[in-house]
Amino acid sequence: MNRRERRAAARQSPQVASQHLVTAKSLEAAKQGQSLFKLGRYAEALECFDAFEKFNPDVAPLYQTRGLCLQRLGRLAEAQADFEKSIALNPLEAETHKNLGTLHARLGRMEQAFASFDRALALRPDFSAALNEKARALWSLQLLDEAFATFHRSLAVAPDNADTIWNLALLQMLTGDFERGWLGREARWKAPSLGLAERGFSQARWLGDHPLEGRTILLHADEALGDSIQFVRYAPMVAALGARVILEVKSAVRPLLAGISGVADCIDRSSTPSLAFDLHCPLGSLPLAFGTRPDTIPFADGYLPAPPAARVESWASRLGPRTQLRVGLVWSGDPGHKNDHNRSIALRALVPLLDCDVQFVSLQKGIRDADRAFLAGRSDMIDLTEQLTDFSETAALMSCLDLVISVDTSVVHLAGALGAPVWIMLPFNPDWRWLLNRDDSPWYRSMRLFRQKKRDDWASVVDSVRRELEGKIAAWQARQSGSHPRG
User: Fold this and answer.
1) Where do the TPR repeats start and stop (predicted)?
2) What's the CA angle centered on 313, arms 312 and 316, to 5 degrees?
3) How far apart, in whole angstroms, are the C-alpha atoms of residue 83 and residue 95?
4) Which of 5, 64, 192, 255 counts the most CB atoms within 10 A of its CB?
């Protein structure tokens, strides 16, 4: 409101003047909400958007942005209602149709998702983001040829769209095209959907293109904990090129990874600013630097040093006498992960496994309320997870087990890197690193993969795991008795 408007408002009735003041305040609330949303402070942003709505109930962009905010907070039904209200107010906004399609796809409502994407594209045929989301939806149904074609259509419209380049790279990796996939994964630094930021080091990034003899290189974590464990296998190879290797990882895995061969120093990020080094490389870029193909993945037999014997003995003592096959179990990942809805299982769904003649040991951190209530009624499962203070403790406990069964979390990388037997339960649309149509992994030779044959069909996965587990139980019991199982 400019000076003339304020003077005019003052000459009007107090009620009209108050309405002008409220409008100014609500506009400020909307701006603040936008700023908080960009910072990822969604709960605070939502309060601002709610304040704006009280005096501006018919503003279509409000409901589109608030819908995104609600979606980030996991309040999906409310998000859908906001998107639909935004469309009712302005049916010609392609962005809102795209957002609604993405939400439908997240909830597995694929027919509605494709209808929304197609409406967005009818309004804007060159809408790269809508093409990207439609390709992801096709991919989730494993309609891979159509997904590839739609990603390429998106890139034809916007060749520099980093989100599309990133997603296409993941699909290339999933289908075994590592050569193009590793290159495409470098777009992660510019992809808005990932929220990653380049570190801004003045030193050059090493991608296998500089000699390392006599030089110090910083290898730094750039993705999740499981990625750090997976890609740290390259550190000894970097050291073998004559470099002094400094490894920077998150504190939860630092004690675990400090003993990797060839690592001169292992630090967390707080120590990095004072370091002197010549070159740097993100851990996730090391496979590109070494030109890794599915048949050249190094150290698939395991590469983490064995946990200290004293620590293993301490865990063995806490577990008590071994009278059954011991199996570690993980059924859910980080609830904040974008793909958590696809990869986590409710503990109750594992009852067919839990009823096997096995001593289950929980390796599950961050147990959810519904699972905690169910777990409280299972006195047959050992749960010492409060004593798992970091991944080195988990590794020591894992060394006391015969097998680990888990969904796709960092625990499977830990087991594989130790060379410990691990079975992973995978959704129909798995992460890129597990490839397609195989029950083994070139990343970890001690791993077996159990896949959904159709979307959301965890029951068949659990049944397959149970059958294999029963065979393992019989073999274990036969060894204890000195006999041999039949068949």
Assistant:
1) 60-93, 94-127
2) 90
3) 10
4) 64
Cα 395 from Cα 328, distance rounded (Å): 11
3-state secondary structure of 279: strand
Predicted TM-score (pTM) of the model is 0.89
**CATH tag for 3-189 (out of 2.120.10.30, 3.30.1360.20, 1.10.10.10, 1.25.40.10):** 1.25.40.10
Q: Cβ distance 263 to 235 under 8 Å?
A: yes
pLDDT tens for the chain, residues 1 to 487:
444 544 443 343 333 333 344 466 677 888 888 888 888 899 999 999 898 888 888 899 999 999 999 999 989 999 999 999 999 999 999 999 999 999 999 999 999 999 999 999 999 999 999 999 999 999 999 999 999 999 999 999 999 999 999 999 999 999 999 999 999 999 999 998 888 888 889 999 999 998 999 999 999 999 999 999 999 999 999 999 999 999 999 999 999 999 999 999 999 988 777 889 999 999 999 999 999 999 999 999 999 999 999 999 999 999 999 999 999 999 998 877 777 878 999 999 999 999 999 999 999 998 888 898 888 888 889 999 999 999 999 999 999 999 999 999 999 999 999 999 999 999 999 999 999 999 999 999 999 999 999 988 999 999 999 999 999 999 999 998 876 544 3
Half-sphere exposure of 401 (CA within 13 A, CB side): 26
3-189 with 204-289: one CATH topology? Answer: no
Side chain identity, residue 124: R
Closest alpha carbon to 187 in 201, 175, 176, 173: 173
- For CA atoms 266, 268, 269, 274, the dihedral sign is negative
String of DSSP letters for 376-426: HT-TTSEE-GGG--SHHHHHHHHTT-SEEEEESSHHHHHHHHHT--EEEEE
Do 473 and 357 contact (CB within 8 A), yes or no?
yes
Angle between helices 128-140 and 94-106 (to 10 degrees): 20
Do residues 294 and 436 touch, judged by C-beta distance below 8 A? no
Question: For strand 244-248 and strand 216-220, is the pairing parallel, antiparallel, or unpaired?
Answer: parallel
> Which residues have CB under 8 Å from 1's CB, separation 6+?
9, 20, 23, 24
Q: Which CATH architecture has domain 309-481?
A: 3-Layer(aba) Sandwich (3.40)
Residue 74, amino acid: G
- 430-437: long-range pairs with CB below 8 Å, 24+: 430/174, 431/174, 431/339, 431/343, 432/170, 432/171, 432/173, 432/174, 432/181, 433/173, 433/230, 434/408, 435/174, 435/175, 435/176, 435/294, 436/142, 436/174, 436/175, 436/176
Domain spans in the chain, listed from the N-terminal domain onward:
3-189, 204-289, 309-481
Phi-psi region of 353 (alpha: psi -120 to 50; beta: other; left: phi over 0): alpha
In angstroms, the Cα distances linking 149 to 96, 154, 235 are 24, 9, 37
